């Protein structure tokens, strides 16, 4: 898949990323990341029963309206957000490294990425967006709920999401087995109805003979 990192390269890029642009925000596109403001961060003081700390409302920097969505805040994200909150002196979550009253610029982000690429000798396709592709590919292995994955990614077309969902032989066998079980239940039900009707018919015949 285009722009998905080879095995082992994702962790290297994550480790090389700056302290406030890391793997925990890999589902965000560049514009969404730079446009994220504190009024869209709904973080709780403790985790819920699922181990999540709240939600991020993705409302700015959208490429299209379908990208408007709410993303769960994981434990790693909560830790990073708490650190950023202590540093930020403006409404933006990601701020300029030298002046925390200003938002992080696209040029600064690009420079950081270029330094990482040169230092670590990554493949030319190993951009920040590749982390998003890699996350969605991994998510596609853990769920077959394509609609939920589509909403998580902010895809406008379900066909785009389907690229990340790959059915294996176990899935095929499970589907065939489910159909077979459903048919057997239906046959038993139909057989039972036929038996009842036959019994009723016999009783009616006996009664008519007596008469």
What's this entry about, in short?
This protein has eight helices and three strands; from the N terminus they run H-H-E-E-E-H-H-H-H-H-H. It has helices spanning 9-16, 30-35, 75-87, 106-120, 128-142, 146-153, 158-162, 169-210; strands spanning 41-43, 54-58, 69-72.
Written overview of the protein:
- The N terminus is likely disordered.
- The termini are far apart.
- The protein has two domains: 154 residues, Intergrase catalytic core (hpI Integrase, Chain A, Orthogonal Bundle); 43 residues.
- By secondary structure, the protein is mostly helical.
- Helices cover 53% and strands 6% of the residues.
- The chain has eight helices and three strands, in the order ααβββαααααα.
- The longest helix has 42 residues.
- A three-stranded antiparallel beta sheet has the order 1-2-3, with no helix packed on it.
Kindly report the name of the CATH homologous superfamily of the largest domain.
Intergrase catalytic core
Total of DSSP H or I helical runs spanning 4+ residues: 8
Query: What overall geometry do the principal axes of the alpha carbons give?
Result: elongated
Distance between the termini: 80 Å
Radius of gyration: 27 Å
Count the strands? 3
What's the number of domains? 2
CATH architecture of the largest domain: Orthogonal Bundle
Q: N-to-C SSE series?
A: HHEEEHHHHHH
The CATH class label of the largest domain is Mainly Alpha
What percentage of the residues does DSSP assign to strands (E)? 5-15%
Helical residue percent?
A: 40-55%
CATH topology heading of the largest domain: hpI Integrase, Chain A
Structural category: mainly alpha
Low-confidence stretches: 1-22
Let me know the average pLDDT.
80
The profile of the biggest β sheet is:
3 strands, antiparallel
Strand arrangement, major sheet = 1-2-3
């Amino acid at each position: 898949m285009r722009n998905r990192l080879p095995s082992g390269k994702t962790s290297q890029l994550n480790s090389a990323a700056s302290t406030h642009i890391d793997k925990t925000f890999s589902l965000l596109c560049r514009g969404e990341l730079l446009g994220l403001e504190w009024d869209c961060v709904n973080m709780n003081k403790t985790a819920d029963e699922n181990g999540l700390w709240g939600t991020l409302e993705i409302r700015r920097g959208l490429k299209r309206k379908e990208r408007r969505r709410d993303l769960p805040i994981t434990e790693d994200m909560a830790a990073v957000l708490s650190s950023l909150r202590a540093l930020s002196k403006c409404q933006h979550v990601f701020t300029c490294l030298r002046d925390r009253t200003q938002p992080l610029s696209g040029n600064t982000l690009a420079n950081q990425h270029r330094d990482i690429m040169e230092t670590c000798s990554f493949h030319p396709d190993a951009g920040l967006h590749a982390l998003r592709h890699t996350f969605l590919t991994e998510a596609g292995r853990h769920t077959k709920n394509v609609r939920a994955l589509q909403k998580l990614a902010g895809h406008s077309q379900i066909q785009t999401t389907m690229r990340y969902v790959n059915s294996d032989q176990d899935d095929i066998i499970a589907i065939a087995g489910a159909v077979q079980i459903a048919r057997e239940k239906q046959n038993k039900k139909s057989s039972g109805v036929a038996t009842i009707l036959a019994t009723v018919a016999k009783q009616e015949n006996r009664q008519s003979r007596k008469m």
